[in-house]
Amino acid sequence: MVEIKHHETGKILERIDADSLAGADLRDMQLNGADLRDADLTGANLESSDLVGARLSRARLVDAILVAADLTDADLNAADLRQAHLGAERPARAATLNGADLSHANLERADLRHAHIRFANLQGASLSHADMRDTDFHGSNLCHVTASKALFIRANLREANLCGADLRDCHLNDANLVAASMHEADLTSASPGGFTVVNLANFEGADLSGAKMRSVSAQETNFRNANLTDVDFTDAVLGGAILRRADVTNADFSGVELASVTMEFANFSKARNAVYPSYKKNLR
Fold first, then answer.
1. Is pLDDT of 193 > 90?
2. 177 pairs with which residues across the strands?
3. Distance of CA 68 to the CA centre of its chain
4. CA 195/CA 88 separation, integer angstroms
5. b/e for 59-91, b at 16 or more Cβ within 10 A?
6. Is there a contact between 228 and 245 (Cβ–Cβ < 8 Å)?
7. What is the pLDDT of residues 116-146, one digit of tens each?
8. Residue 2 in contact with residue 21, Cβ under 8 Å?
9. Nearest Cα to 75, choosing from 47, 95, 103?
10. How far is CA 152 from CA 26, 34, 111, 114, 267, in A?
11. Tens of pLDDT along 218-235?
C-alpha cells in the first residue's frame, strides 16, 4: 500500500493498493499539493488528475501520461519527464503547467502539443526533440534551455526569455516571439549542411543581440523593430523577411541575398558585409 500525502499538512490524499507508483493508475485523482518528491512514477497514468501545487521535484515521470492534468504552480524541478505525454491534438485536452517550476527538468522527446505553460520557469531544462507545436509559453523563462531538434511550430513564446538557449536545428515556423529575449541564443546547426527554420516567425521587438543565426532559414520572417546587434546572419536565407526599423549594428550579412528583404529605416550603414541593390530606399 502506497500513501500519497499533502506536502504541508501530511493529510493522506490517496491510498494506492500497490507496492510502487510506477505504472499506477492515478487518473482523475485529487492530488492538489501532493508530496511526490523523488517518487518513481514511470509509466504512471495521471490523466485528468488535479496536481495543482504538487511537489514533484526529482520525480521520475518517464513515459508518464499527464494528458489533461492540472499542474498549475507544481514543483517539477529536476524531474525526469522524458517521453512524457502532456500534449494533445485538442487544446482542451493538453496539460496545464502555468506557473510551474520545470527548471533543470528533462523533457527530451516529451509531447507538449497545445500545453499551457505560461509564466513558468524552465531555466536550464532539456527540451531536445520535444514536440511543442502550438504550445503556449507566454512570459516563461526558458533561459539556457537545451532544445536541439525540437518542434516549436506555431508556439507562443511572446515575451519569453530564451537567453543563451540552444535552439540548433529547431523548427520555429510561424512561432510568436514578439518581444522575446533571445540574446546569445544559438540558432545554428550542429551538423554540416543543417539549418534551423524560423520561416514566418514573428520576432517583432525581440532582443536577438549576439544571437548565432548562421545559415538560418528565415523566409517571410518579421524582425520589425528587433534588436539584431552583433547577430551572425552569415549565409542565412532571408527571402521576404521584414527588417524595418531593426537595429542591425555590427550584424554580419555575409553571403545573404537582401534584394527581397524589407529594410526601410534600418541602420544598415552600421551592418557588416551587407550587399544590397542600389534601388533600396530609406536606409540609415
1. no
2. none
3. 20
4. 28
5. bbbbbbbbbbbbbbbbbbbbbbbbbbbbbbeee
6. no
7. 999 999 999 999 999 999 999 999 999 999 9
8. yes
9. 103
10. 30, 31, 11, 11, 30
11. 999 999 999 999 999 999
